[in-house]
Amino acid sequence: MGRGPLPPLVALVLLCLCWSPTGVTQKPERVEKVCKSVDIRNKVENLKKLENCTVIEGYLQILLIDNGQAQDYDGLSFPDLVEITDYLLLYRAFGLNSVGKLFPNLSVIRGNELFHNYAFVVFEMYHLQEIGLSKLTDILRGSVRIEKNPGLCYVETIDWDLIAKEGKGGHFIKANKKAAECPNTCPENDQCPESPEKSHRLCWNSQHCQKVCCKTDCEHDATCYNSTHCCHPECLGGCYGPLSSDCIACKHVMYYDEKYGKRCMKKCPSNLYEFMGRRCVQEDECKNYTITDKQSEDNLDEKTSGDRRVFFKPFKNKCMQECPPGFVVDDNNPHVCKRCDAKCPKICAGMTVDHVGAAQNYRGCTRINGSLEIHIQGGSNVIKELEENMNMIEQIDGYLKIARSFPLVSLNFLKSLTTIRGEQLDKKNYALLVLDNQNLQELWDWQNRKSKLKILNGKIFFHFNSKLCPSKIQELKKYAETVDWDDRDVSPSSNGDRVACKLQF
Fold it and tell me: CA 265 to CA 467: how far, in whole Å?
């Protein structure tokens, strides 16, 4: 005998339970096993490195499994994994048809370190049919890139902005299977939440809705575990009950003691140190943790490993990979940060910054040994990332080139820059080049700078900056020490040509 339609009240309750972050799932008894960054390539069997990992403190890359077949993945599942602190990358892992079958409980990707601008990348996965990460609710930093997956469906049925709120506007989803050719059928009875524009339901596949909290008045934007109960405000990724010990992951830090077990807290107790932005550790544990430079993120086809060991330092209640501004590593003890007598010099190599991940390489740098080029066309929170990572640069030995960086409206993120030496020049003539930046409106806030900008060798070059009025460029004559220029160096027609600039005679 067939089932009739559900009564309205029952349907509503099931609706909320279906897509609340944990519903009424019983809390699993997991023993936390923390794994470092994992790179899986060449063979499907290498996935077994992930057995029993509950958290990856670092990145997870699954790539270049050229001979993989669908049956090779049968029986492979890692339900213990709930959190990745950096990014998740999948690239040319042949035979894999569902990410969710591998990681059915992955809930949080923090994005502490990004792959270019992205915390979640699915690229050229030729046999992938669905992502299926039905428990994934939070990507804290970075955007999503899902591209060139010819068989991939259920991409348009996910609201990625709900998962990666800080990455909003930076998601890149292109060249997957056309939506019209996909079933994209969500679970029946309209139990899945609607998209913001109410054009379709939100789901990962035909069995799982996208998880969206039913309750809207939870404190501090906390999630909920059924239609009427909020998780603890320190929870992230959902929970199994109302206590701070019921969280799937922690918004700030996880603290363990023998009396209460694991619980989430806003900060660590005074005798412990915050580690990786997620847990509290003892001083000795911090000192015993070392890593090597991670492999090159720009060449996926070649695995490289750095030979530089990085030692962590317990400092002011944080277990830090790098000493903070104003401090340097003690020559006699790599685990100690000592205060500089004057300014702390930190010399970094010149490079091209074309994504926010590259900008992180300049955190704390005061001098660039070489030239600095910035070409950033997109990404989330670009200005914030540049300010946080490049605001201490005082000197560039070579040239500074800023080109086709559409998010930039000013150069104030280089607020400490005082000297461009021009020891290397672009086009044999130029030490400061600002080219084709469509939204750039000013150079620096000169009134709040402590000193003039000195260009010791070379000229300036400004072309095709359509919102940068010539008067803003002319300010360099007053606030910078540089040689004069002519119309070949600074175009009188292609700078500020799309805004109402004041005419100067």
Answer: 46
Give the tens place of pLDDT for each residue, 393-435: 999 999 999 999 999 999 999 999 999 999 999 999 999 999 9
Residues 6 or more apart whose Cβ sits within 8 Å of residue 20: 211, 213, 214, 215, 223, 224, 225, 226, 227, 238
DSSP 35: E
Residue-wise DSSP of 45-69 = GGGGGGTT-SEEEEEEEEEEETT--
Query: How high does pLDDT run on average in the chain?
Result: 88
Report the C-alpha gap between 441 and 291 in whole angstroms.
Answer: 42
Express each pLDDT in 215-227 by its tens digit.
667 776 667 777 5
Three-state DSSP at 228 gives coil
Which ranges of 216-355 would DSSP assign to H, the alpha helix? 283-287
Q: What is the pLDDT of residue 425?
A: 97
Model confidence band, residue 181 (pLDDT cutoffs 50, 70, 90): very high
Q: Residue 52's CB: how many other CB atoms inside 10 A?
A: 12
pLDDT of residue 295: 40
- Does the CA dihedral 237-238-239-242 come out positive or negative? positive
Structure tokens at 231: 């998780």
Length, in residues, of the chain: 505
One-letter identity of residue 208: H
Buried b (16+ CB within 10 A) or exposed e, 128-161: bbbbbbbbbbbbbbbbbbbeebeebbbbbbbbbe
Strands (E), 386-429: 395-396, 400-403, 419-420
Residue 431 in tokens: 């030490």
Q: How many CA atoms lie within 13 A of 47 on its CB side?
A: 23
Q: How far apart are CA 400 and CA 421, in angstroms?
A: 10
8-17, 65-74, 114-123, 362-371: the lowest-pLDDT one: 8-17
| Alpha-carbon span 204 to 200, nearest angstrom | 13
Angle at CA of residue 388, ends 271 and 478, nearest 5°: 140
Alpha-carbon torsion, ordered 449, 454, 455, 461, to 10 deg? 30
Residue 123, CB half-sphere, CA atoms under 13 Å: how many? 16
* Distance, CA of 15 to CA of 441 (rounded, Å): 49
- pLDDT tens for residues 284-305? 999 999 887 654 444 455 444 4
| Confidence grade of residue 15 (pLDDT, cut at 50, 70, 90) | very low
CA atoms within 13 A on the CB side of 380: 23
The 8-class DSSP code of residue 386 comes to H
Supply the pLDDT for residue 200.
Answer: 86
Integer Cα distance of 79 and 88 in angstroms:
16
